[in-house]
Amino acid sequence: MAHILVVDDDPAIRQLLTDVLELEGHEVRVAVDGLAAVRAMEICQPDCVVLDVMMPGLDGYGVLRTIRAQEGEPVPVIMLTAAAEPDSAVRAWADGVDYYLAKPFGADEVLSLIDGVLGYPLPAA
Length: 125
Known about the structure:
Elements: E1 3-7, H1 11-23, E2 27-31, H2 34-44, E3 48-52, H3 60-69, E4 77-81, H4 86-95, E5 99-102, H5 107-118
Parallel strand pairs: 1-2, 1-3, 3-4, 4-5
InterPro entries: Bact_response_regulator, CheY-like_superfamily, Sig_transdc_resp-reg_receiver
Keywords: DNA-binding, Phosphoprotein, Transcription, Transcription regulation, Two-component regulatory system
Organism: Micromonospora pattaloongensis
């Protein structure tokens, strides 16, 4: 399966996403803020990033811009936010996010988005 980097300053969300993704067979690495995310990107070279918008220090937009500035095949990024305002979504799309998802979200919703960006076949309904 895939290597997923989960970036969120909320420990409960990090744990939820880690548990759900690992149950699906993914390898998960976590980062607690934007600066840790940038360091983790250099080390683990994930197949997909699940990224919170609002974090102390370097926010999700800064992390996204750093990811998009890297050379090579672009890493899919799914942004999560508690503040799903139109301006925030527009900014995320302009910075190159693949998907933008408002909190609260369902675990199945995140799994489907990850499967989609990684090109995995979606389960039949």
